[in-house]
Amino acid sequence: MEIPPLGILGGKPAFAEPLHVGRPNLGDRAALLARVAEILDNRWLTNDGPMVREFEQRIAQIAQVRHCVAMCNATIALEIAARALGMQGEVIVPAYSFIATAHALQWQQITPVFADIDPRTHNLDVSAVRRVATDRTTGLIGVHVWGRPCETEALDALAHERGWSVMYDAAHAFGCSKGDRMVGGFGNCEVFSFHATKFINSFEGGAVVTNDDALAAKLRLMRNFGFVGFDCVRHIGTNGKMTEVHAAMGLTSLEAMEAIIAVNRRNHAAYREGLAGVPHFSLLNPDDERGERRNFQYVVVEVDGERAALNRDELVAVLQAENVLARKYFWPGCHRMEPYASLDPDAGARLPETERVAARVIVLPTGQAVSVADINLICAIIRAALAQAPAIRARLRPA
Ligand code: T4K
User: Fold this and answer.
1) For residue 197, how far is its CA from the centre of ligand 1 (angstroms)?
2) DSSP string over 223-273
3) 315 CA to middle of ligand 1, Å?
């Protein structure tokens, strides 16, 4: 493909409009509007309404669990679940995650203790978890990064052996499976996100899913201030409720689930083909050869900055100059963000794989808003940039 002068070298951006990572996937507009009309007719807008219940049923069915408790977002869902599980003191989490995983703990005076990751999967390394455990540890939160499930057997077994609670931040992993078991039933509970940028979205939204009846009952109470009936509060609680309009969007999005997977899968294949053979580049394999289900929501490339002609940050600058707003998730790692950086300034030394992966990853735009032609152009830009690396380096070098 013929590429005009690159934006970073003074050319016009290849895309007139920005191409975002996280542009929402939309379901059928008429179906959503019909649901909104029904909500208005019902005059039931929030507080465990019929749309929320239907949404919960559908999520529980797909995730193969007994209970789904829908919430206003995944961050509040993580907070409520941590409290319902009695997490306190120290809880082990990866630093390679969105900041919400750590904040959900710190927000309630629980100390997140960061453990390193396996560079192959980007998920918690079980031996690193063992290394950071102390007698103050009460729990563990694994994150299924990019939708690839953690080593749940080993983590669940370790938690069981030590008497810890264990939950999974499955914000990326709705619709994914480990073997023939859907994500949802691992640990004591799992948390999904239905934020606008996620595979299935309810504008904002989240849910805790579990097979534990008592835990589900507690989560329902805590989501609604602890109320049972009009005048009786049985538990400390907060307002974590999902509204009917959010559930309407979620149900509409669920109807498009297979179509969204098909687009994501097509886009993934286009990137794989477009980047094949680019030296020191690797596209993370969603790893579904064993017949596992994946949602293909993220296109994640690792750039070996020591050997490639341009490093990750240089390539992101190249792409952004073309209006391709590639992201560096989860740079620089939770441990280098506040308040954690000040609380434990030396954490980086104990998290070498987290630091290495965070310095190599580029997340590229995908989803319904991105066409195969867009992807071909993005890949051609990357190839053209690598071929002109010395000029680009000179341009990016601080004066
Ligand atoms: N745990 C994990 C592992 C997570 O990744 C997340 C969230 C959570 C927990 C917490 O879940 P929630 O509480 O959010 O339910 C985005 C998302 O906001 C965040 O939900 C997500 N992870 C994270 C990985 O990505 P930002 O701050 O990097 O990007 P944001 O929200 O500005 O959106 C990205 C781009 O998407 C924007 O540049 C423009 C585009 N966009 C966004 C929205 C909202 C649109 O085109 N339309 C839109 O409506 O966090």
Assistant:
1) 5
2) HBTTEETTTEE-S---B-PPPHHHHHHHHHHHHTHHHHHHHHHHHHHHHHH
3) 22
